[in-house]
Amino acid sequence: MNVLGVYRPGNTLVHRLPPGVKFVAMAVAILVMSLTVRTLPALGIATLAVAATFALAGIGPVEAWRQLRPLLWMLLFIFAFQVIFTDWRRAVVICGVLALSVALATIVTLTTRTTDMLDAIVRGLGPLRHVGVRTDLIAIALALTIRAIPLMVEVVREVDEARKARGLRPGPRILVAPVVLAALRTADGFADTLTARGLD
């Protein structure tokens, strides 16, 4: 089974970048896409930029597709919803921006160790410690958020494989309900693990 968002060792330019730089670059890129990508040509340019980032990270087309393929059914559901209430061009742009955002988060998790993520976040939030803010808890929350994106994509993939094994047709009721339940179970697991370590 392919585990999404798990660190892949490497010596590429993206691997060597400091985790803090990757976090900031990812956040800025997602923010810029959300604010500026409104047309299909703009979406095409953003797609080329993300594809170039995959190449810099040493992640080939096959691996990139393997990482994003589980997102397909979720995107199809969002696309159908948007087509009903807006139009197909707007639906393509929204789904495209969402897919590219997940792709950027996946690049960060594939090229950054979890410990390095936590260290970078704690250092960045360091000044807040002087006013009594638990920066270690914030760091864990942010790291878990980054990890949860590819994890939820993996959940969607597993639900879809279970649907195929049972010979069921795809549909919102078949896919959405199990994904929501799995997400809640995953959140409970995170909460129990953190509580067991005294991070309540």
In short:
The chain has 200 residues and is mainly alpha-helical. It has helices spanning 13-16, 19-36, 40-56, 61-68, 72-85, 88-111, 114-124, 135-165, 172-196.
List keywords for this structure.
200 residues; mainly alpha; 9 helices; 0% strand; globular
Can you describe this structure?
- By secondary structure, this protein is mainly α.
- The chain has one domain.
- It is built from nine helices and no strands.
- The protein is globular.
- The mean pLDDT is 81.
Oligomer: single chain
Average pLDDT for all residues: 81
Distance, first to last CA: 32 Å
* Strand/helix succession: HHHHHHHHH
Structural class: mainly alpha
Residues in β-strands, percent: under 5%
Number of strands: 0
Helix content: over 70%
> What is the CA-based Rg, rounded?
18 Å
Low-confidence stretches are: none
For the report, how would you describe the main beta sheet?
none
| Overall spatial form | globular
Organism: Gordonia alkanivorans CGMCC 6845
Transmembrane segments: 20-37, 42-62, 68-85, 92-110
Protein name: Cobalt ABC transporter
Subcellular location: Membrane
Helix and strand topology:
Layout: H1 13-16, H2 19-36, H3 40-56, H4 61-68, H5 72-85, H6 88-111, H7 114-124, H8 135-165, H9 172-196
Pfam families: CbiQ (PF02361)
Transmembrane segments: 20-37, 42-62, 68-85, 92-110
Subcellular location: Membrane
